[in-house]
Amino acid sequence: MALNNPWPDRPGDTASLEAVASALNSGAIHLLRSLAAVDRLAAITPARLSALSVIVFGGPRPLGELAAAEGVAGPTMTRIVDGLVAGGLAERRPDPRDGRAALIAATPAGEELMRAAAARRISAIASAIAELPAADRRRLAASAGQLDRLAKTIREAGQASAAGG
After folding, report:
1. Side-by-side strand order, sheet with 61-62
2. What is the Rg, in whole angstroms, of the alpha carbon atoms belonging to the chain?
3. Torsion of CA 142, 145, 150, 156, to 10 degrees
4. Distance between CA atoms of residues 110 and 92, nearest Å
5. How many domains, the chain?
6. What pTM was estimated for this model as a whole?
7. Which range marks the domain in which residue 87 is found?
8. What is the pLDDT of residues 4-29, one digit of tens each?
């Protein structure tokens, strides 16, 4: 979606804000769908790859925290983790803070698989960026960091809504 004037001229210009939001939504969906073929090379399900990413890049965590990070119910995450464990990609470790609980952690094989999958994604994205005109590459570089800030803002707003705030 091309935007003639993607920036609101004044606070409260919801039409411009919604146009930018719509373009970002569409772009994010198309980018993720385009990377699906790259992700299939990991030879595990998208849900397992996503959960593995959380524990590789975010560190070991209890099952409930992993489920919350992935936005799924506990029983669903249990099935995902069972698959990762059966595949030798993750393990359950005693939680040093709570002897009754376990932490889900990546095994060396899981770390290797996830880092290779991330490298393939990065390579695919970098190759696509290289094909863009220089001005587009500069704009992407200048705005790339804003995507994480935007995601954080959305997460925090969702948490506040869930907490009744």
Report:
1. 61-62, 98-106, 90-95
2. 19
3. -160
4. 13
5. 1
6. 0.79
7. 34-133
8. 555 555 566 777 888 888 999 999 99
